[in-house]
Amino acid sequence: MDTDDFINIDNVPMLTIFPEDNVRSAMQYEPSASDVVIVTYPKCGTTWVQYIVAHILTKAEPPKNPAEYMLCSPLVELLGAESAVRAERRGPLITHLPLSNMVFSEQAKYIYVARNPYDCSVSSYYFVKGMTPRRVKDVSFGAFLKLFHSGKTAYGDYFNHLIPWYEIRNEPNVLFITYEQLKENTGEVVLKIADFLGDEHGRALREDKQFYEKVLQSSSLGNMKKVFDYTPGERVKALGELPPAKFLKSLESFKGMTIDMNAMHEGAAFVRKGDVGDWRSHYTAEHITRTKAWIAQKTKGCDVMNLWKDLDLP
Question: Which segments constitute the Sulfotransferase domain (predicted)?
């Protein structure tokens, strides 16, 4: 775990594979009334909700090819704002950018997904570890947790990301859900998402049971692991190899780019375990003590941790 593996763009730590021009264009992009934007801190259920929303909006299972999928539902700061306005895009936009580093549109629809900080830290650890060069020797969870608590990992501080969205969770164009709610009551939350996207989408799922079951099946953990079994390196390579008809100017920096995953520590794929409570097998007593102190300091005067009052967190 090494802060040298990040670049700082307007006070947001980003992995070095993110082109600075694309990140800045994403920060300046103002979503339109037709845009659905999924916002999460990394490793909080992004891919899961993205897949559900893309399936509902397109009424078809999303593309399995990594590049095609990213064009259908782009991570805006990776592909640039150009990817958000291309005529062929049919799925939601994705971003991990903090609210303070993006243009909030009252016309667009936003789905924010929150995950408890204990499980989020563990999932983030495995992803960041897999993007950490082997020259970095200490890749222990304890080393990562120090970065996580200090906000010196991808996209910065967890609570600085979460709390601003928690404070506007009741805005009419914001749907605020938790990963844990989705895990416990998947079918119910899928319908809630569909209703938020538009009455016609909620009605379509309720009237077409086969479509509803297909959405649930395709977004199951087992299927998601099959679909997203590619590495970040393969994802970047696929972007650089798009045919001219589908290529974007914002993707020029990906041409010929390679990420030698063999030079990185072993990490995890985009979809890992998906469990609630996996933190228990990683946290020591010291980790818990440090994390409780960090949470108390970051949430002073805010009841955001009530989101997980039923989880028996430390």
Answer: 34-226, 248-302
